[in-house]
Amino acid sequence: MHPTGTSPVDAASTPAGILRHAALYLQRHGWHQRAYYGATPGTDDVSAATYYGATPPACVLGAIGMAVHGQAHPDPLDPELPHASAFSAAYGTLADHLILTNLSWIDSDEDTISGWNDHRDQSIGEVIAVLNAAANEWDRLHCGGEEFVDDFPGEARRYVRRATGYAAVIVNGETVIENDRYTNARAGQIV
Predict the structure, then answer these.
(1) How much is the pTM?
(2) Residue 1: is its pLDDT beyond 50?
């Protein structure tokens, strides 16, 4: 069984789902700083499964790794691991959230997450809250499903996938969508 109670990646196929699973992992198994995972006390064998135990306390990156890979890896960021692209997407989503909400003072993704996790004033409650906030932000700013609409002249039909959460969409200098609603501006043209 996966440590978050689901199968890796499939149950959390979006960055938002992975971040929520990472938050759940930290809530259930504990949080750690300055290393991906906390070692099992009294263990000399340094293989991942033995050294870390099945569900060790984890830093935020270790928790994302557990949500994606389903087990502790010495380097959950390793691009050769299965599902590395899913890890990378969740990692980037969290880094963007930290930078855009000014929760991190560092400009590079690599230092942003680790530095934020390891800050001396950091707490598990804050880490879990930020993972969930980043997941909610990802959901808010990404497209929903497709719908078939009749809004072209001449009875033409098309598929539309609407995005939400953006303050404005500007075409040729005119605001055509504001606060998720179309304006009456017609700045483009049908080709």
Answers:
(1) 0.72
(2) no
